[in-house]
């Protein structure tokens, strides 16, 4: 947005803050205390004579019971956001709150005219609802990625690069395994539970990607339990199995192993699969009989890795818990905008969930030069 339009925009934002404050029934002085500024500064904000950075905007939005987008005068882009807002409280709420926050940050970047707008895309959807049609779609994905013989390595990269599906990871405790927020051709966001085992997160992402590519039209898909046995969930699970553990690749891995247990461990490492999922795949392909499957499932997973001499691979297979990730497209556009002086450290710290000083230190360690001041008067970019 050009500078000549900025004063009127600041005034409009100030008017919305004032109106929201009055509706909320709190005084200007109280709101000033929440923001950590004096009453004079708060008065200037409401008069449009003092600009806000993204962090300040988020603080005010929370205090006023609204959103940054609403204070900026931006309407909700899609029914997906409205659907997220209608979901009740409980274990699902943190996932939806993070999804909403990410979508709002992306929308603010759109409003500022930043490069890198969302562009999710699908390939041809199956015309039939069948396991064979789902398997064919999975093969199409594998062939397009050049992964038909080996299976997909970096699934997050494939989802984001090839299909424009944004992938976030957020520690959600006992919350859902994953959430997919989608709408038409302008939103496709997956939030995965960072407290889950790495193999479970990987399967969940493949499952959510299946929902997207199969054209499941629900604006908000909440997968609290991937064992849900309705038809739509079975299709997404089948897609995940076929795309993560393609039959030919599974057969080759098992055939090259010295015994059954080594074959299971080799499969866990190669495909990034959970033990239960991989053993079920072996059973489905009739590569093991029921007693062999039970033998593989009865032992502790660490014991399987020890038997196979691959104990060094166990930590990476388990993956880190409490993982957190911002979609790479959104991270790139916000960091680039910050370096270019288009947005302030406040908006960036909101995106990453880090304190401004800590974030600046981390970015500098990554070779990104930033200038940070905790003087609010110097933070003039939204």
What can you see in these coordinates?
Helix 2 (28-35) crosses helix 3 (39-46), helix 8 packs parallel to helix 11 (231-244) and helix 12 (247-255) packs across helix 13 (260-271). This protein has 20 helices and four strands. The chain has a four-stranded mixed sheet, with helices on both faces. With 382 residues, the protein is mainly alpha-helical. It has a domain at 247-309. The chain is elongated, with a radius of gyration of 24 Å.
In short:
The protein is mainly α and 382 residues long.
Main β-sheet description:
4 strands, mixed
Q: State Rg.
A: 24 Å
Q: For the largest beta sheet, what order do the strands appear in spatially?
A: 1-3-2-4
Number of helices: 20
* Proportion of residues in β-strands: 5-15%
Cα distance, first to last residue? 11 Å
| Strand tally | 4
Give the overall shape. Answer: elongated
> Helical content, roughly?
55-70%
Low-confidence stretches: 1-5, 371-382
Order of helices and strands: HHHHHHHHHEEEHEHHHHHHHHHH
Mean pLDDT: 85
**What class would the helix/strand composition place it in?**
mainly alpha
Notable traits:
mainly alpha; four-stranded mixed sheet; elongated; disordered C terminus
Topology:
Blueprint: H1 6-24, H2 28-35, H3 39-46, H4 54-63, H5 68-71, H6 79-86, H7 93-111, H8 131-145, H9 155-163, E1 166-170, E2 178-183, E3 187-193, H10 198-213, E4 220-223, H11 231-244, H12 247-255, H13 260-271, H14 275-284, H15 290-298, H16 301-307, H17 314-318, H18 328-339, H19 345-352, H20 356-365
Parallel strand pairs: 1-3
Antiparallel strand pairs: 2-3, 2-4
